[in-house]
Amino acid sequence: MSGTRASNDRSSHSGGGLKRARSEPGGNKVTVVLGAQWGDEGKGKVVDLLATESDIVCRCQGGNNAGHTVVVDGKEYDFHLFPSGIINPKAISFIGNGVVIHLPGLFEENIFLLWSSTLSIIFSIAVFDFHQAVDGLQEVQRQAQEGKNIGTTKKGIGPTYSSKAARTGLRICDLLSDFDEFSSRFKNLAQQYKSMFPTLEIDIEGQLKKLKGYAEKIRPMVRDGVYFMYEALHGSPKKILVEGANAALLDIDFGTYPFVTSSNCTVGGVCTGLGVPPQHVGDVYGVVKAYTTRVGIGAFPTEQINEIGDLLQSRGHEWGVTTGRKRRCGWLDLVSLKYVHMINGFTALALTKLDILDVLDEIKIGVAYKLGGKRIPYFPANQEILQKVEVEYETMPGWKTDTTGARKWEDLPPKAQNYIRCVENHVGVPGRSFCR
């Protein structure tokens, strides 16, 4: 970052005082890739491109509820726990302590047998099978009581983070330590859930047997993440790439609550999930589709429940990697994007799937929200209010040109360039286009 730093040296004050020490952080910085909408923006594609020049690729938060798809040489890889950059054989792949780990899911991924990289996860909370069962039961309960559910992936992420916050969760370091003590705590946790959900069936001994086997398999791969990251940041020059899961509007604190995930998908999750001090965060890329999609329920101001939405869904092949659910589609929402930029401080935007808009005669962009006929200068936190906003659109002419072969700025037709410039100007962040 550049800019002017104000001096605050008060050592010459008549009453004496302390002279503030100043030192620039040494070592390496991490490059961060984050979703800037409700997920499914194409983070895996951007990570895959940046990973070719990276020495370390990291996943910092979330669980196997996230899904990233990367296609390399015609072969498709679907990742749920591993960072997308794992397919770069020259880079160390690193799963941070902020990721909640479902060990069976880890071994099920199609890349695992080829994997010889580094797991941190020593401080990670484990996702157990009964967490996943409880996730499903809670959704049924919400539907019965409120007539609607959250729309979770039923991967157990919410219940696991609840265990973490309640300080009853079990970490990977517990699993790798005294197994008798781990077993005792596991049984207590299982009984707690059984008391809350009487219909819940848990094969305690069977799960413990499997977990003991998983522990021996992962033991050689696990190391302390804090020391790993410290050495990476302060050792020889390295390019370190961090991949966020989910997206900013699904952040537990800043997203469209309660229809959010259970972790911090914003830039703060990089620091808490990997143990990276803030001064070591370098470039932060916000990945955004040229339109907007959302899986599940919740407010979606620019949604198009019409032929435009159908066209975006069809051309964009919009269905969830993890759930297979059809994604809701709508125009690009710059109000939410600017809000997300306020939180993350993006240094650039990676604009994906621009080519999906190639066939449209005109394209709309949501540039402002109105309540009661008046513009509001903020993104509403309350879902009921967000559902009531009226979107003010700017209409731009379509370029009606195939952009799938575009590889640099000059390859794009002028009207497509104007579309990107419009996004940059409204949000205040330079963009890059990543065609499909």
TrEMBL record:
Pathway listed: Purine metabolism; AMP biosynthesis via de novo pathway; AMP from IMP: step 1/2
Chain residue ranges for the region called Disordered: 1-26
Catalytic machinery residues: D40, H68, K164
Entry binding sites for Mg(2+): D40, G67
Keywords: Cytoplasm, GTP-binding, Ligase, Magnesium, Metal-binding, Nucleotide-binding, Purine biosynthesis
Entry's Gene Ontology BP terms: 'de novo' AMP biosynthetic process; IMP metabolic process
NCBIfam families cross-referenced by the UniProt entry: PRK01117.1 (NF002223), purA (TIGR00184)
Name of the protein this chain belongs to: Adenylosuccinate synthetase
Lineage: Eukaryota, Metazoa, Chordata, Craniata, Vertebrata
